[in-house]
């Protein structure tokens, strides 16, 4: 398994690459990953200066800190090639590709990266935000099954999905939820991490905490964020809770009892617990241990 797939991606903050002020704020922020945006958050006339700002920032990048990602414009847009070259020069941990429709788009981008002699450990994240990407999400995820593949992470683009489909983005996300679940399922099949979409209403942190809890329950690994105030609620929601850790420890302890050594299924507190639950508990404890 690719080591980057074990990284925590609970809180993933978008930062417009054009915003000097937002970039200057980064050392004080405790998010798991930062996505420097060259796409929708940057006006056409500001793209070139934004690339230059990124080059300068990455040249003095801190040794430790969050995972660093650059979102480029699509390769076939007027900014795509320059963005790709700037990303290559910055050497982030990953590049995030928006508006992907088909596996061909990923192959083309991968080939373009190879032509720049990009290192094999430069990862590729992909926005799932078009109707075609939704229809192809299983085939897109398949590309992550190869251990050497760059493809590492799906990011839900709920704003673009709403725009392209006409679906109403209600606060409870009732019309978007089936597609989000499909994305989680596909990501699991392909061994990818998968991040929930952004919440635009960044001042309402109660609603945001509910949306994070919902995203965690849906199986997302973390949430993409647009504002520093969203970091802490996301971190909390996507970390194993004290109750979940205690329950996992109880399952581990029960199976460690000599009386249960040869048993596949036991009962704990009136509930059936099988060895698959033990495996699940071990995974949760390992994750909690890494945090
Ligand atoms: C949404 C914002 C424009 C709001 O900005 P602002 O009004 O400045 O907020 P505050 O005054 O509350 O900011 C307080 C301080 O925090 C800094 N700040 C704000 N946002 C960020 C950030 N994202 N990263 C780092 N620092 C940030 C401010 O500079 C203030 O600093 P200080 O005064 O020194 O204390 C703004 O939050 C913003 O631009 N957010 C990011 C927007 C973005 O990147 N959008 C693109 C990605 S989302 C997307 O495209 C989704 C997807 O593709 C889809 O289809 O759904
Ligand atoms: Mg988008």
TrEMBL record:
Cofactor: Mg(2+)
Domain (HpcH/HpaI aldolase/citrate lyase) ranges: 10-228
Domain of life assignment: Bacteria
InterPro entries assigned to the protein according to its UniProt record, in alphabetical order: Aldolase/citrate-lyase_domain, Citrate_lyase_beta/mcl1/mcl2, Pyrv/PenolPyrv_kinase-like_dom, Pyrv_kinase-like_dom_sf
Keywords in alphabetical order: Lyase, Magnesium, Metal-binding
Pfam family, any one: HpcH_HpaI
Entry's family note: Belongs to the HpcH/HpaI aldolase family.
Protein name (record): CoA ester lyase
């Amino acid at each position: 398994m690719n080591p980057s797939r074990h990284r925590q991606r609970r809180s993933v903050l978008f930062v417009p690459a054009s915003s000097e002020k937002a970039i200057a704020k980064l050392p004080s922020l405790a998010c798991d990953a930062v996505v420097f945006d060259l796409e929708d958050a940057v006006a056409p006339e500001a793209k070139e200066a934004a690339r230059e700002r990124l080059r300068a920032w990455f040249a003095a990048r801190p040794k430790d800190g969050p995972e660093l990602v650059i979102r480029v414009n699509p390769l076939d847009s007027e900014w795509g090639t320059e963005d790709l070259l700037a990303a290559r020069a910055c050497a982030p941990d990953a590049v995030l590709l928006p508006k992907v429709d088909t596996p061909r788009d990923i192959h083309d981008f991968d080939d373009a990266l190879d032509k720049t002699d990009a290192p094999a450990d430069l990862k590729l994240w992909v926005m799932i935000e078009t109707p075609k990407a939704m229809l192809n999400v299983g085939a897109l995820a398949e590309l992550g099954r190869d251990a050497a593949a760059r493809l590492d992470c799906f990011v839900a683009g709920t704003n673009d999905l709403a725009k392209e489909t006409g679906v109403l983005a209600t606060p409870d996300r009732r019309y978007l939820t089936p597609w989000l679940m499909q994305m989680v399922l596909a990501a699991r099949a392909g061994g990818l991490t998968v991040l929930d979409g952004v919440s635009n209403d960044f001042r309402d942190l109660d609603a945001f905490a509910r949306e994070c809890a919902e995203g965690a329950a849906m199986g997302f690994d973390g949430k993409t964020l647009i504002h520093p105030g969203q970091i802490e609620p996301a971190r909390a929601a996507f970390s194993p809770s004290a109750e979940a850790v205690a329950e996992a420890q109880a399952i581990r302890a029960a199976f460690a009892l000599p009386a249960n050594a040869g048993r596949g299924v036991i009962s704990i507190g009136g509930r059936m617990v099988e060895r698959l639950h033990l495996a699940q508990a071990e995974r949760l404890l390992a994750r909690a241990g890494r945090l």
